[in-house]
Amino acid sequence: MSQHEHVRVAVIGSGFGGLGAAVRLRREGVTDFVVLERADSVGGTWRDNSYPGCACDVPSHLYSFSFAPNPDWPRTFSGQQHIRAYLEHVADTFRLRSHIRLNHEVLMMRWDRDELRWEIETSRGTLTADVVVSATGPLSDPKIPEIPGLADFPGKVFHSARWDHDYDLRGKRVAMIGTGASAIQIVPAIQPEAAHVTLFQRTPPWVLPRMDRAISGPERWLHRQLPFTGAARRGLLWGIRELQVSAFTKRPNELGLIESIAKRNMSRSIKDPALRAKLTPSYRIGCKRILLSSEYYPALARPNVDVVASGLAEVRGSTVVAADGTETEADAIIFGTGFHVTDLPIAERVVGADGITLAEAWKDGMESLRGATAAGFPNWMTIIGPNTGLGNSSMILMIESQLNYLAGYMRQLNVLGERAALAVRPSAVGAWNRRVQERMERTVWKSGGCNSWYLDANGRNTTLWPGTTGEFRKATREVDLAEYEVVRMPVGTAKSAEAAETAEVVR
């Protein structure tokens, strides 16, 4: 990378958000952009998470771009390898490879007030960009809790998102920490080969049956020959989930029927009353993410699996100790403890117009306008930003809405010309987030009686969107300039410190 390279747009990350942004930029006629990826291949979380049993809990035909349908999904719920292959296919089909810079980790991004652009320091050099699109995603940096004695554990330790495929679990005593979406897929996958699996559970999840099956050859042929059939399938899946939203966001008491289905799913495999009591949640279904599995409970009923209904508290040599004092000998500890979702590490690496980092700006909680732009950070946009997550549908729908907003943002900048930047008004960010949080109070995520990774340290849900994907699509359809300040430099002057001092702010 040239030390002085400048591009119109720098996209950070090459998962669904980053590749989607790249496609949309090309469609808008923007070809002067790069995609900076810290790893050696594209794929985002579907590259990083390669643990045994890894698969998506959203139907395949809904978990893909509308502009890049895949008629050849092999299963109704596709596995990690198929989703990763799909993203590689998107990169090839839309000719994105020439824009992608692999092994370019972003170390710091600073807004240059004098030049009205971002200076980006990477592991391979420095470049500048007029606009930054941060598409690192909330599921990119694993979280491992600080456990006394963990550093002295003589066995193997790794996170589910950093699976060690060179380590053979056959005949090993495995301590699985956590009972989230990763753990309920890992346990059934490793149980047959491990000597013993001990699952450390702080809070039991609600688990519904996973209605997965192979998609037949005739179905795939039909979708290839008649693409509208695949679109109809996608539309049906979307519509069903849109109808479910009100139960999560307005009428949580209606979720009781879903709880009864989850309890029947458990009772079919768990006959031991004591184990069933351990595995039965005490909170309303939906408060934490609903998980899908038809193999989890059968695996827990196997004789070489134990469930400790208490979190990991300490490690003493090869002995793993739970908070309730239960001791277990282990050869390997696997953490399925999630990610830094409400304290995004990338926020430490973004320095805005006022000289403070995004992490400092968000010290009391993440806030942005329409999940996209943050006050104090001109010409900076995030994909899958604050309050854009979903509890029951496909994140690709939300990503595509944000890509619409990105397109509108670029159009506005093009109209304004090169010597201009857009800075979101703090009042607009505040008004948007007040409305979001007011709606959040009625949701199951706030009233369901649980403590989930949706909530930040202050108990605010800064993760999920409290409405339908259709509502969000409407809210991000266009960029309203009234919500922004247009920062300009005088025509005819060089972009310099002197010019910056006399910069005009069009209000």
Automatic annotation (TrEMBL):
Its cofactor is FAD. The keyword Nucleus does not apply. The keyword Transcription does not apply. Keywords: FAD, Flavoprotein, Monooxygenase, NADP, Oxidoreductase. One of its GO terms (molecular function) is NADP binding. InterPro entries: FAD-bind_Monooxygenase_sf (IPR051209), FAD/NAD-bd_sf (IPR036188), Flavin_mOase-like (IPR020946). Belongs to the FAD-binding monooxygenase family. Catalyzes a Baeyer-Villiger oxidation reaction, i.e. the insertion of an oxygen atom into a carbon-carbon bond adjacent to a carbonyl, which converts ketones to esters or lactones using NADPH and/or NADH as an electron donor. Thus, can convert bicyclo[3.2.0]hept-2-en-6-one into the oxidative lactone products 2-oxabicyclo[3.3.0]oct-6-en-3-one and 3-oxabicyclo[3.3.0]oct-6-en-2-one. Is also able to catalyze the sulfoxidation of methyl phenyl sulfide (thioanisole). This is Baeyer-Villiger monooxygenase. It comes from Streptomyces lunaelactis.
